[in-house]
Amino acid sequence: MKQFVLMCILLIFIVPAMAVDPVTINYGNFGVNDDFTGTEEFDLTKCDIIVTYTLDMNAYVPSPGTEYSTVGLVSSSAIGYMASGAPFAANTDPLARDPDDRLVLGAPTRLDEDSYDATGPDTVVGAPIGTPSENFNFLFDRDGVSAAEALEWWAVDGSTYNTAGFYNVEIAFHAISATEATMFARINGLAQGIYAVAAFDGPPEFYPVGKTMDSGDITRLRVFNFLRGAGVAITNLTVTGCLRAQEVEIDVLPGSPTNPINKKSKGLLPVVILSSPDLDATELDLETVFLEGAPVKRIGGRHNFWLVVPVDLNRDGLMDLLVFFDKEKMDMSGLDDGYADLVGETLSGDSIYGSDAVTLVGRGGF
């Protein structure tokens, strides 16, 4: 049986919210068949995510068919990646342009240049864009080109040709809604582009171009790689982005097993935020804590004090925090799914969220 322990009210001065900064994680190096999925979850709705790595296909000669490697981001319902292979590397010619290696953004249902559908991070125009077969920075030459070809606009020594099978890849992911995202790539420092009709000696009409992810839950994205083809390797697989909010346990109406709430009633709703070995609830930035849109109740008028009570609700030796919310300020429609959701940040800027089941009642209840 949970106990509702009321202690002396603690008055806390407001502490200004601190910005949530992206973090950078270097996952290291990986070889062929060394499949990997990171444990850290990144939230694309909080900030853009940048994935970088160096791809080494120098020793890769496909036989008899091309095997593609993929590196990108994945969740239970969203995925986007860069696919790389060497479909023509067995026929290299140091005296002419011969596109040995191919790098293309992909998603499971949209694999090729034909499905590029974005011309800016927030601009989705639909596919296909221009003439997908006439493109720039999708196909790369491992060795040299003729003297005449070296003068063409597309010819960048060490980037589009003379690559030796090495590619510095950067994939930028950007949220355009709560469940949708775009991705754009730079390979050896150059963006990808597509011509309107046919390639000519000048930049493509659509430059840069990108692709939408197969989207869904973009708040729990993890980096992954799937390397295939003898000799393929990547180094310095690095992700920069905002980590997903830490989940915390909350207890709405402490002492009640069913948490009955009448959406039409008024007054204050008590909620306990429980501490854990990973989170001290008394170190939350109360300015950022909201329950279904309602802020933590203040008292003291212009003095801006918070109405909070420290209490070890579950008797685990860690001090939890009882907070109060004004029901009239809550978005009551948020309870229709049977849960009350709380969000906030710690004083160090880390995001937290918590949820507790509630029972909606027409009469009585809290």
Overview in brief:
The chain has 366 residues and is mostly beta strands.
Per the CATH scheme, the topology name of the largest domain is Jelly Rolls
Overall geometric form: elongated
Structure class:
mainly beta
Known CATH architecture of the largest domain:
Sandwich
**Radius of gyration (Å):** 27 Å
Going by CATH, what is the homologous superfamily of the largest domain? Answer: Exo-inulinase, domain 1
Strand residue percentage: 35-45%
Number of β-strand runs? 30
CATH class of the largest domain: Mainly Beta
| N-to-C order of helices and strands | EEEEEEEEEEEEEEEEEEEEEEEEEEEEEE
**Largest sheet composition:** 7 strands, antiparallel
Distance between the termini: 19 Å
Mean pLDDT: 89
